[in-house]
Amino acid sequence: MKKASPDTLILLVALALYTPFLFLGYGSDNDTYNVLWTGAYFVRTLDYIPSRGPGFFVFETVTFFLNVLGGSLLTNLGVMVMSLVTLYSFLRLCRHFNIPHTPLLALILAVHPYYWVNSTCTMDYLFALGFVFLGMLQVLRGKYFTAGVAMALGVGSRATTILIAAGFLIWYFLTQPQARKLLFQTGVAAAFFTLVFYLPPASFAEWTTRFLTPTVGGEEFWTTYLRVGRFAYKNIYFWGPLAALALAWALAVGIFKRRFFVQPGQRGLAVLAFGVILAYEFFYFSIPTEPAYLLPTVPFWLILAGIAFKPDRRPLYLLLAGLLIANFVSINVARPNVVNKATGAIYGLWIEPGHLVEDTRTRLAFMDCGYQPCDWAGEALE
C-alpha cells in the first residue's frame, strides 16, 4: 500500500482535530448571529442590511443557503472546508518556493488557537482566507482568470483580505515579468467581481463611503495609552507568550544571520511576507479589538520562521509547543477593568483556560440558549 504523503497527513490531522467541534452550534462570536439574521431578513424583505460594516456579502449569502440546508453543522462544515483549502494552498505555496520544514509549518498553522477555533465555527475569517490563498495558488498554476475570481470571493467575504490579494499581485507583477500580461486578467477579474460584491453594502449606505467606517466605540476607549496597550497585549496573547517568544527569536535570527536574503526565490517571498504582516499590523493598530483580525498574518509569519530556522527545526517545535499550550492554558498578566469596555487594566498573574477551552465553554453556553447569545452566558462561564 502506498504511504500517504506528509502533506496529506497534515490535512488528515487537521480534519481529525476540527471535526468534533462542528457539532457545537454556530460559534461564540456575536457577529455570527448578525450574519444569520442578515440572510434571513434579506430573503424575507429583499432589503439588504449588512451584518456589520463594511458588509460581508459573499459569506452572508453562502451562510444563508448552508444554514437553510443543514443548520449550524453545514455552515461550520463550509468554513472547515475553506480552512483545509487554506492549509492545502499554504502547503503548495511553500513547496513551490522551497520553504524549509513545510509540513511542520502547516501543522503549526493548523493548531494555532485562533486558527483552530475559527476553522470550526460559522465565521468569515478562514472562509475569506481560503479563497484568497486559492487565488494565489491558481496564479502559480497559470490559471489567471479563476485566480481573480477566487480573490474577489475572498475580499467579498471579508474586505481586509484585499491586503493579501493586492500585495501578492503587486509582488508577482514586479518579480515575474514574463507573467505580467496574463496577470492583468487576474487584476481585472478581481477588481470587477469585488466591485459587484460591494454594490449591496454601498446601496445600503446610499452610495456613500460610510459603510467602510467600522464601529469601535467612543474616544474614551482610544487614548494613545489604551491603543498601544491593546495592540501590544493582543499581539502577544494572539500567539501566547511562549510562541510569541519563538517568533521573536525567528525574526532576530532571520535578520541578523541574513537567512531571509540568501536564496533569491525565498528572498522575494520573505519580502512579501514582511509586507503583508506590516500592512495588517498597521491596520490592527488602528483597530486593536478582535485578535482574530491578525489571523491572515499567521501563514506569513510561519514562512519567515521556516526560512529563519532552515538549518535546525528544533525552534519550530518550541513554537508548536507554545501554541498547543495556549489552546488549553493561558498565563495572563492583565485583565480589563470592565469586560469589553476597558478604560484601564488590572495587573497580576492568573492561570486561565486557553483560547480553545474558553471558546468551547462559550459555545456550549450559547447552545443552552438555543444557538444564540444570551444574557446569562457570561455568568455560566464564571
Topology of this protein?
Blueprint: H1 6-18, H2 30-45, H3 57-96, H4 102-111, H5 113-118, H6 125-141, H7 144-157, H8 162-175, H9 180-197, H10 199-204, H11 224-239, H12 241-256, H13 264-286, H14 298-308, H15 314-328, E1 329-336, E2 345-353, H16 355-368, H17 377-380
Antiparallel strand pairs: 1-2
Describe the 3D structure:
The protein has helices at about 5-20, 30-45, 55-95, 100-110, 115-120, 125-140, 145-155, 160-175, 180-195, 200-205, 225-240, 240-255, 265-285, 300-310, 315-330, 355-370, 375-380; strands at about 330-335, 345-355. With about 375 residues, it is mainly alpha-helical. Strands 1-2 form a two-stranded antiparallel ribbon. The longest helix is centred in the N-terminal third of the chain and has 40 residues, at about 55-95. It is globular, with a radius of gyration of 21 Å. The termini are far apart.
List keywords for this structure.
single chain, 382 residues, mainly alpha, two-stranded antiparallel sheet, 17 helices, globular
Overview in brief:
The protein is mainly α and 382 residues long. The protein has 17 helices and two strands.
Total beta strands: 2
On the 0 to 100 scale, the average pLDDT is 88
| Beta-strand percentage range | under 5%
- Topology order in helix (H) and strand (E) letters: HHHHHHHHHHHHHHHEEHH
**Structural class label:** mainly alpha
How far is the first residue's CA from the last residue's CA?
51 Å
